[in-house]
Amino acid sequence: MESPFFTSLKCRECGKLYPKKATHICEDDFGPLECAYDYSAISRSISREAILSRPKSMWRYRELLPIDGDPTVGVQNGFTPLVKANRLAKALGVDELYIKNDTVNYPTLSFKDRVVSVALSRAVEMGFDTVACASTGNLANSVAAHAAAAGLKSYVFIPADLESGKVLNSLIYGTNLIGITGAYDQVNRLCSEIAGKYGWAFVNVNIRPYYAEGSKSIGFEIAEQLGWKFPAHTVVPMASGSLLTKVHKAYQEFIKVGLVPESRFSIHGAQAAGCSPISRAYKENANLIHFVKEPKTIAKSLAIGTPADGYYALGSMRETGGASEDVTDPEIVEAIKLLAETEGIFTETAGGVTLGCAKKLIESGKIPRNEPVVLVITGNGLKTQEAVMDHIGKPSVIKPSLREFESLLAARTDA
Amino acid sequence: MPIPVTIPTPLRNLTGGADTVQTEGATIGALLDNLDAAYPGIKARICDESGAVRRFVNIYVNGEDIRFLEEKETAIKETDEISIVPAIAGG
Predict the structure, then answer these.
(1) Residues in CB range of A237: below 8 A, 6 or more apart
(2) Whose CA is closest to A136, among A352, A357, A317, A307?
(3) Is the CATH number of domain B3-86 3.90.800.10?
(4) ipTM value of the model?
């Protein structure tokens, strides 16, 4: 059954159309292929009422997601809480602030469960029995888990020096986990060679046009959860830059199909100072991206030195009046703690990058204090414990004695 | 003196399957012209209508992207390592 809504793949550079196959690059100019839709057909099918009548998952926007039949993998994913963060707002000195909390995305606690749901549903539709990915960790976890649940074989390639939580959270699902001695970009280069040789569904290589579209669901949910409107400011972490461009696309599509009236929104990008190729180009007002050969940051999930969508992420930020920032490792740790202590949300390092950069954007006036802000928090802190372990103190240990407890309490009150 | 140039998989149908070809030129621009004379059509895949190297194609001289050198005016010699590499999607 063909989708009446999702029509073809289209080159982002020259616009050439391609059939909906497992392919990702334009054969003429090497531009990336993107999913194209029939928006007038979608406008006739989709409505706020129709969406509200559907289960609370990312698939309630299914007309705008690129599969032909019903989703078969990750059907329950998405629709994470949009938390009104009053205590954090006060700490940052802004009036209205929300956390899009993908630290609790189902089932592997990061936004990657969205993209993998689309990628593997599409891979199953296309008849693949083996899936694979190159990953900085979260994607690895998600591909391994979903492949297990769908009964697919999986090969997952990661930099060998990833956080132990991310390694364990892939291995547990019985995937073939391969650590590569090198940075993510080298893992990725190897994967593009492997993808060319083996007939697998490589979610972020030959299935990338489908996979990337899953990120739009974050943008759809934010708009719906805010009462069918866009926040004036959305702050998004950038690794390849794909997520940022897809949040932008999501907002544009909601306008196109008549779900949200046209209104102003700015999308801002966040990177770690130790790997900030996109942020640097933004600040230098350049279109050329200086690739980072050796990323050095605790935000390993964002450590992509050759961001595939960097150019388009720059375009999205500039077009929407957004800005870009970057933060150091100590600033990332401070931000992780701030989010935990004000809102009870434990994010991984990427979330620390997002919050740390938002803080800078507020302080510099790029995000005015009286306009609504949404921070996209993409992953869970339990997976990157190494980053904060030495910065949060240790439990006080006492004998089971009331006197010891009271003297401890007195010492703490004095301090 | 000929200079070896590494050809990426998607362009090897134009070089008879060869992954490395020998060509000449004092600059990258001249090298691309000579490459196109030997393998007609290859330049149009690498450069756009205005002659600029396409956004998703990288040309490296000794591992350095020519965008950060002198672009197509980058001078080359026979001992240089020249590779043409399409950008890799991912992440």
Answers:
(1) A243, A269, A270, A271, A302, A350, A351, A353, A354, A376, A378
(2) A307
(3) no
(4) 0.81
Tokens of A53: 């009548």
Q: Is A29 close to B68, i.e. CB distance below 8 A?
A: no
> Which residues of A, range 214-243, sit inside 8 Å of B by Cβ?
239-242
Residues of B with CB under 8 A from a CB of A: 9-10, 45, 48, 54-57, 65, 67-68, 86-91
Give residue A229's Cα distance to chain centre: 21
pLDDT in tens, A368-414: 999 999 999 999 999 999 999 999 999 999 999 999 999 999 998 87
Q: A357 — phi, psi (to 5°)? A: -70, -40
Angstroms from B70 CA to nearest CA on chain A: 14
Which one-letter DSSP state was computed for residue A31? Answer: P
Fill in the amino acid letter for A37.
Y
Tokens of B82: 């020249």
pLDDT tens sequence across A317-369? 999 999 999 999 999 999 999 999 999 999 999 999 999 999 999 999 999 99
Tokens of A236: 């998004």
Rounded CA gap, A303 and A306, in Å?
9
